Amino acid sequence: RELVAGFDENDGIESRFFFWFGAMMTGLFILTIASTSVLPYIRDLGMGFVALSFAGIMLVRYKAVADKFYEAIDWDLLGFFAALFVVINVMEHALVLQLIGTGLSTIIDAPPDIAAAGLLAVSALFSSVTDNIPLAAMLAKILQAREMAGTDVPEQLWWSVIFGANLGGNLTPIGSASTLVAVTIIHKYKISLSFAGFIRKALPYALVHIALAIIYVLLFF
């Protein structure tokens, strides 16, 4: 405790202007991302444009030290994500995701509570091995298509997709971006953690989270 109390948080700040400018840009970035869907012009460009724009502004403003930014980037992780999204895109064009969605449609047709619990559990399972973004988008399209066809879609099912797609990412190290970043950092510090080892440690907690989400959806929606 004394060691922590002896730390001066200001020691790591080389430039106060850089610190406050970075903090301001981070806050503005979060605000812009959160309001992208309602801002004119920007909503047509999307969140990717917003992220690249803010990154460009920071690089131009601090171009003299941009090489330090590049050195801090984990290029292996970026390469993995690029390859992962290529695989997911191939799966989408090969109609693999559509096949998964068709299988989930049979669950959606079950009685409301069974459909909600089943959709959450199965979407969590698929989300652990496929990226949750295209999976959630595909499930949203299925639910929207049913609504457009005049079929009533309970609110339970929408929340089942949200919880399932998000919590399923905790089952495997490739299920979510944040987990993958954490595992990459663990390996960088030479800490041994295999794919199977991660699942062994994460599985109990992930199952508890999914079970609690199912109970929450059944009780409150």
TrEMBL record:
<keyword id="KW-0472">Membrane</keyword>
<keyword id="KW-0812">Transmembrane</keyword>
<dbReference type="GO" id="GO:0055085">
    <property type="term" value="P:transmembrane transport"/>
</dbReference>
<dbReference type="InterPro" id="IPR051475">
    <property type="entry name" value="Diverse_Ion_Transporter"/>
</dbReference>
<dbReference type="InterPro" id="IPR004680">
    <property type="entry name" value="Cit_transptr-like_dom"/>
</dbReference>
<keyword id="KW-1133">Transmembrane helix</keyword>
<dbReference type="GO" id="GO:0016020">
    <property type="term" value="C:membrane"/>
</dbReference>
<feature type="transmembrane region" description="Helical">
    <location>
        <begin position="17"/>
        <end position="39"/>
    </location>
</feature>
<feature type="transmembrane region" description="Helical">
    <location>
        <begin position="157"/>
        <end position="186"/>
    </location>
</feature>
<feature type="transmembrane region" description="Helical">
    <location>
        <begin position="198"/>
        <end position="219"/>
    </location>
</feature>
<feature type="transmembrane region" description="Helical">
    <location>
        <begin position="46"/>
        <end position="65"/>
    </location>
</feature>
<feature type="transmembrane region" description="Helical">
    <location>
        <begin position="77"/>
        <end position="102"/>
    </location>
</feature>
<protein>
    <recommendedName>
        <fullName>Citrate transporter-like domain-containing protein</fullName>
    </recommendedName>
</protein>
<feature type="transmembrane region" description="Helical">
    <location>
        <begin position="114"/>
        <end position="137"/>
    </location>
</feature>
<keyword id="KW-0813">Transport</keyword>
<feature type="domain" description="Citrate transporter-like">
    <location>
        <begin position="13"/>
        <end position="164"/>
    </location>
</feature>
<dbReference type="Pfam" id="PF03600">
    <property type="entry name" value="CitMHS"/>
</dbReference>
